[in-house]
Amino acid sequence: MILLTGGTGYIGSHVCMALLDAGHDVVAVDNLSNSSRASLERVKSLSGRTVSFWHADIQNEEAIYEILRACGVTAVVHLAGLKAVAESNVAPLTYYENNVLGTMRLVSAMKRANVKSLVFSSSATVYGMPTYLPLDEKHPLRPTNPYGRTKFFVEEMLKDLYKSENDWRIAILRYFNPVGAHESGLIGEDPRGTPNNLLPFVAQVAIGKREKLVIWGNDYNTSDGTGIRDFIHVVDLASGHLCALSHLKEPGLLTANLGTGKGASVLEVVRTFEAVSGRSIPYAIGERRVGDVAVCYADPTLAAARFGWKATRSLTQMCADHWRWQLKNPNGYGGT
Ligand code: NAD
Ligand code: UFG
Best label site of 37, 70, 179, 229, fewest CB within 10 Å? Predict the structure, then answer.
């Protein structure tokens, strides 16, 4: 039995699908602060499997301990967390409490219940401003915002834990830019309010919910002047968790990038989305967003070498799947 924290969220619902498809039993935990149960209902009907759901906060160590014991959990895939960079700048304590303290409570419950296998979702944001590219796992870690620092501190905490008790089996996964949706169009990203990230914003412009995209800067030192990111299909990302889990058969701590190794510019994303949707995406050029880097993409060779994982889906597929989800669910989970 796998405990999946953040199981009703965007990435969590796709990881849940992947786990169920691979034959794992799953118990999902979420405090529903940024998601709803609807995603899990979709996952159940898509997979034809049941998933038990506990409405709980990872900061509640007793509740987590009870779940670990009652459900016979053998490994935890930990995705629960707050993830908005701008919000973390105005509410840093909320981020440290939720992401760092929450993970401490979760891991303490795991220790008490003697469940010592953990996959943790970290982020490429821990690297900060790249000093070289592609970013490999040895690149210095200098996160530039409180959100990124919560991921950094959790990584350090897990390393210290492993040093002190080397029977733990820990995989730290640094995601690059997850986009897209399950090819069924039944599960996908359902941001609350104005989307912070590029793809959900572009999709909402394409469907007419927003007038135009603002591209934050076209004066970067890149081929077309716009920022470059390593967009990765969320279904590829989810399969990375399965590979990491199978790697946890032996004690150890492994840190791996989950990216494609290829960068795409903001304008390339806009053009690709226009092509797959047949809609035009009006845009304006705005000032650079504070804290943005020009170019960021992964060296994903370690994940391939250590646990046999490689992303396979193209940018066209990412946009096509994102668009299918947007078309089928114009109001996300709320309006369907
Ligand atoms: P999401 O907000 O859709 O999912 C996170 C889930 O965690 C939500 O369902 C939320 O309700 C839940 N949650 C938050 N705090 C909780 C708590 N204290 N107890 C229980 N549940 C709690 O976000 P996502 O995009 O699916 O991200 C999942 C993880 O991946 C996060 O940890 C995020 O930091 C990390 N990540 C995301 C991205 C990205 O671009 N989406 C990139 C890198 C890393
Ligand atoms: N962008 C725009 N307009 C928008 C939104 C984004 O031009 O309305 C641009 C950004 O300037 C950037 C690119 O699109 O050049 C990607 O921006 P996102 O906000 O989608 O993604 P980020 O790379 O800024 O950050 C994301 C997550 C972080 C995570 C990081 C990992 O938001 O939490 O990827 O690489 F840590």
Answer: 70
Residue with the two structure tokens 């016979």 = 72
Amino acid residing at 181:
A
Q: Euclidean distance between the first and final Cα of the chain, in Å?
A: 31
Using CA atoms, how far residue 334 sits from 55, 83, 154, in Å, is 19, 21, 33
Structure confidence by residue, pLDDT tens digits, 97-154:
999 999 999 999 999 999 999 999 999 999 999 999 999 999 999 999 999 999 999 9
Among the listed residues 10, 95, 147, 333, the single catalytic one is: 147
Whole-model pTM: value is 0.97
For the question of residue 147 being annotated catalytic, the response is: yes
Whether residue 8 has its Cβ less than 6 Å from ligand 1: yes
Quote the ligand 1 centre to 219 CA distance (angstroms).
32
Q: What is the CATH code of the structural domain delimited by 2-179+231-259? A: 3.40.50.720
* C-beta 9 within 6 A of ligand 1: yes
Q: pLDDT of 206-248, one tens digit each?
A: 999 999 999 999 999 999 999 999 999 999 999 999 999 999 9
Amino acid at 318: M
Q: Check whether the bond before 134 is cis (ω within 30° of 0).
A: yes
pLDDT at res. 296:
96
Q: Which atom of ligand 2 is nearest to the CA of 230?
A: 35
| Residue boundaries of the structural domains of the chain | 2-179+231-259
Q: How many angstroms separate the alpha carbon of residue 72 from the centre of ligand 1?
A: 24
Q: Please give the full DSSP string across 89-118, using - where no structure is assigned.
A: HH-HHHHIIIIIIHHHHHHHHHHHTT--EE
10: CA distance to ligand 1 center in Å? Answer: 7
